[in-house]
Input
Amino acid sequence: MTTSPTASTSPAPGGTATLLGHHVLGPELPAVPYDHPFRAEFRGWLQQHPLGPEPLEQDARIAHRRAWHRELAADGWVGLHWPVEHGGRGADALTQFMYYEELALAGAPEPANTPGLILLGPTLMVHGTEELKKRFLPGILAGDEAWCQGFSEPDAGSDLAAVRTRAELVGDEWVVNGQKIWTTFGQYADLVFVLCRTTPGSERHRGLSLLVVPADQPGVTIRAIKQISGDEEFCEVFLDDARAPRDWVVGEVGQGWAAAMTLFQFERGDQGYTDHARMLVRLAGVERRLAESETAGLVSSVRAATARARHRDLWVRIQGLRLLNYRGAVLATSGEGLGAVGSMTNLVWGELEKELGAAVAEAVGACGLRAGRHDTHERLHTRAASIYSGTSEIQRNIIAERLLGLPR
Amino acid sequence: MTTSPTASTSPAPGGTATLLGHHVLGPELPAVPYDHPFRAEFRGWLQQHPLGPEPLEQDARIAHRRAWHRELAADGWVGLHWPVEHGGRGADALTQFMYYEELALAGAPEPANTPGLILLGPTLMVHGTEELKKRFLPGILAGDEAWCQGFSEPDAGSDLAAVRTRAELVGDEWVVNGQKIWTTFGQYADLVFVLCRTTPGSERHRGLSLLVVPADQPGVTIRAIKQISGDEEFCEVFLDDARAPRDWVVGEVGQGWAAAMTLFQFERGDQGYTDHARMLVRLAGVERRLAESETAGLVSSVRAATARARHRDLWVRIQGLRLLNYRGAVLATSGEGLGAVGSMTNLVWGELEKELGAAVAEAVGACGLRAGRHDTHERLHTRAASIYSGTSEIQRNIIAERLLGLPR
Amino acid sequence: MITEPASARDHAEVSALVREVAATTFTSEKVRAAAATALGFDEVAWKQLVDLGWPSLALDPAIGGAGMGTFVQCLVHRELGARLAPSPYLASAGLASGALVLLGDDRATDLLASLGAGTRTAALVLGHGRGWPTDDGPAGLTATETPAGWIVDGRAELVLDGARADVLVVVARTADAWGLFEVDARIGAVSRTPAATVDATRALADLQLTAAPARCLRSRPVTTDEVSGLVDRMAVPLAAEMAGAAVACLEQTLEYLRTRHQFGRPIGSFQALKHRCADVAVALTVAQEMVFAAAEMVDAGDVAGLRIAGPLLLARSAEVFLHAAEEAIQLHGGVGFTDEVDVGLYYKRALVDGELLAPVADAYARLDLVRAEGAA
Amino acid sequence: MITEPASARDHAEVSALVREVAATTFTSEKVRAAAATALGFDEVAWKQLVDLGWPSLALDPAIGGAGMGTFVQCLVHRELGARLAPSPYLASAGLASGALVLLGDDRATDLLASLGAGTRTAALVLGHGRGWPTDDGPAGLTATETPAGWIVDGRAELVLDGARADVLVVVARTADAWGLFEVDARIGAVSRTPAATVDATRALADLQLTAAPARCLRSRPVTTDEVSGLVDRMAVPLAAEMAGAAVACLEQTLEYLRTRHQFGRPIGSFQALKHRCADVAVALTVAQEMVFAAAEMVDAGDVAGLRIAGPLLLARSAEVFLHAAEEAIQLHGGVGFTDEVDVGLYYKRALVDGELLAPVADAYARLDLVRAEGAA
Output
């Protein structure tokens, strides 16, 4: 088998990590300069905490990410945007922006447990009781309790308000019945946050509640869905008389839609900060690998030229995403929401992600067909990007109707 | 002003014409071989009938085309597909296909009066009375009477069945009132064929008739619409108590929709034969001009390389159109209709035409901005291609619903 | 229904029969099961194709063929492609037999007859690698004449059916040109390593030949132009499989769009999705016409036409198939990227088929070259 | 409403004021009328902009400017672009003044002050032609020092406002580098031929200078790198106009889609059209952010950032503008390609703006070059 370098840019653990230079990110942006003290501080820490290449096998990959989460958390490098009272640093969105850029330049994965860290935690801070905050926030930050999301349902698809899972109060417990789908890494979760109907007979956005349901109980069955990449990143969650304590409701009973909307705001407001940087790092790797492939005769010079034009196009579009993310961070810092710009970043990201995944595999020519390689895997894996966090079609609908005011 | 060759490939009249070689068309197709006797015969005639470059100014351009129509007609080279009894040669669709290819290779325009030759004439043969055929067919063939089409209306747009123009029988005459739009070269026409409502109160496809209305009368006002190219290719036709003889109805009174549908079949079945060849000839010209521009320093080598990749893409897509046209001709020869393939050729043609128009102007760099040039004009002119013969959007609807069976 | 190639109209009956057989022989369940076996194909199904005489459809009746030409055989390729059939058919009846017909002389007749009869299967190994050869380009496989006969040395990667074929039909570089050889695939001099790729329905392998005894299948040397002609010729059945797969992909998507409801309507009634399907349909209608026009050229012996049509249809079929598969995943939404529906299998097949003979960029470069020659 | 650049939020009031003035000063009727005059601009409207102090918005208060920076000036460019304003503003206040600020020394102060005050207008003439200069590339304009002072010779084509400006600000090749010069545009040594193009709202001209007396505006020579930096810098106001025009194009299209009915519905309710508008909106939102990020770089003196941002935003703005205009024509249907609506004017403006400084392909080539330097 012809070998070619695998996708990881991380050095082996032990020594000092090599961090990519800021030029990989593109031109400097005024509010997040490359000589910002925060960057220097975090880079210093990252340099001292090298990490090995990410395994290809999923369980090992998740374990790798959780270990990294704990390593970051041990020195207070997780949940920087969380308020100090909840263990964070109260960092603003611009700091968060730099944080993710530096993580990417170090070739490091994001902290594991993003559903808890990015979504449920901040939502709890807005809508949760003091008891729930005390109970759950520390475990999220430390990486001790993993969370997953129970929103989508099989027959609802992109229509979130068509929730049919129901919960009924029986004594001191909610008894939950229904089925969820597209639950990211459900099989590794300790807790599920479930959007369900608590007012019998209610319709659409009314009568819903956001419950916290422990995953490890007889009433919860989690079945992984095999993807075309071989990964099992998404799960079906079957709730058959699953139990949740009466008080484990995020927000008021019956006001679950409001809590869910808060949560979605966080989804669009945070993950966006990291993706362009990770993409730029990956693209730099692709460009390097293509040159190697051309030298090694794995791709013809014509094919390499075609690929280069495509890489340039990708770079340009990622710069656009970077500016959208940057403006999002600036807006967030001044306390404003993203509005429909969230749908824009989501759309741009999803389409780019697929093309970048394809570019990764194509940079090694026919070798990108061979199973068991990071590049081969990445191409298949990224096919889901324009679907799972709201399809590109839904994002275009939202942009057209909410932002552009076109009639439904 | 920097000069660069203008778009015409035609020699000055007088000597012998230079015809482009068949290789410009792409690979040979079995039923229309390059050594077919018909091609040789027509090429022989074309070689002896050189024609000067087409003028840019519209009136002169139309005069040029009418003269060419008459020159062709004088030797029986117009309306080959018409039956012998009506002055044609009874040629099949494959001969027609070769006819248009050879015309294109000679750099010659199509015969003028296509609305009569391609649309109304053949429709008359199907639906017309003997009297109408005798009255109108000879003038169409000879190019003595020019026709135009009165179908679309201002508020109907792509929805043809929403016709509101009405005609009422008063004595021995139809009195027609209403307004038509997008009438190609209406200002040069002697006769208009008008789809109008002859059954008062009828709706949609019912109660329509196809009338022949003389253009030169007080009740007919034809106003040209200025296009972004400066051309006035389309007109509004105002019918205010316009008169038409009682018998000038194509098909039965009240059966105008059937006649119109027959006419549309001819539109898709014939014009398609010519367009790929003309495009391939234009593209060959673009490729040559780009090389000259690069040598002259009008475009950078990088820009030329980008343009070449685009030209290749266009060539590939025109080959696709050629095959669709070819198959259409084969089907027609065996007496079958095109069905939804007509919408495909129309869609492919319209999109290609725009891009080819842009490529023509861009091949001379910034010179393609200057007014009064064929290339500049062509870019602006072709913007209408994906709109005026049924928008690309309508074609996609038709393909999706009729061919692919997707629900309305 | 999606447009059939108009060119195939005269063969509507054959086409319908082939479709029916393929649809029952290669159901999704059977295809997945067969692809998971060691050799990656369904022996019973293969016997059935042999019994139907499909491997010899295009061959001369003099050697037991049906004499129906490449055009009809491409109807079979199209339907096998549509079902992602894990079968020796493309490698043996399409590529290897095609090579023997095109380049072999009477020494090749026996082998050709046995491939047609299905008593043996073959893989075609192109010594110049993927794409079109050049006079001075590298060659992975070289043939040397020794007192004991010809031997072939070298390495070839990702060869279709390389590990499961009985015979290798090898195009190898000789001292002054190229030669066409038969190598027994089961001997020790041939090391065969199955290459696991994203697409289990195509059985690829890496081959290493070390002084492998070879039988020369044509007395005259093969010129570089002739090897190029072989690549053009090989593009036709491969493209037929890609076109068929692309159509199947769209059909499955249309079926999903017609039946899946969301927001109270079948999602196929949403105009944006309709328009995207229309664009795919147009592209694959054209690609199908290109394939069958080229099949007509093969049957007419029109080598000049194929020089252009070969790279053209290879590139377009690969692009159209990949696009159809990508759109199929996207338009299926959530289930589209799971293994529970088949569209992902088509996507992976598109990736492999797109590399098998030549990648799209190389095919277009070849087209540019040939067109420039024609214009000169 | 279409997203404003988030970066412009702090200047919402200025932005609103500018928009209001532009909308009343440059209505469709006025624009068409002014473009049809001999010099192709509306003198009264220009006086009004001068009275508002817009030509000196970005200039130093020491020479009578408002000191508000290029960022704020780009808000003006954006709105003038949105209205297709036939105005000396881009050439004089954007390009020529920008060149004087960037490359001139105190010799340039008087001229700069008069351009800011609107007592004179200028055109910028780049002696290397379009695109970015190279050390060994051709130069259409050369400057020679004679005992009587500098003279400039040569030819420049399609110069914005070349025929109507009072002064030419010329970058010309000298014996060893480049120089920045002022040439009186009205003298006999300067032959000016208005160049009719597809877009009458931009006044272009071909210039021939024959031993034209010139005043040197900077004592030190100008390096090729500095001329490149000038091109980067010029890209910002031009791109601001393109971005503004693209937004206006989309807004007119949205208005049409909301009000025009067909098949019993507003055509804007058809999903395929919605999705296409969404794609345009995303692209131009990004382009706008690029423009204003670059304007921030100009104000911060970030030359390194502009080396990348300049070609990037020039290419993207041109692509986005052209795409928005093409879609506007298409989505307007029949009226879209007539002169009765304005979208055709935007299309023609897009063609001209896309060539003015550098064509897209050349801008991307420059970007590749600069990125490769950065990675090395």
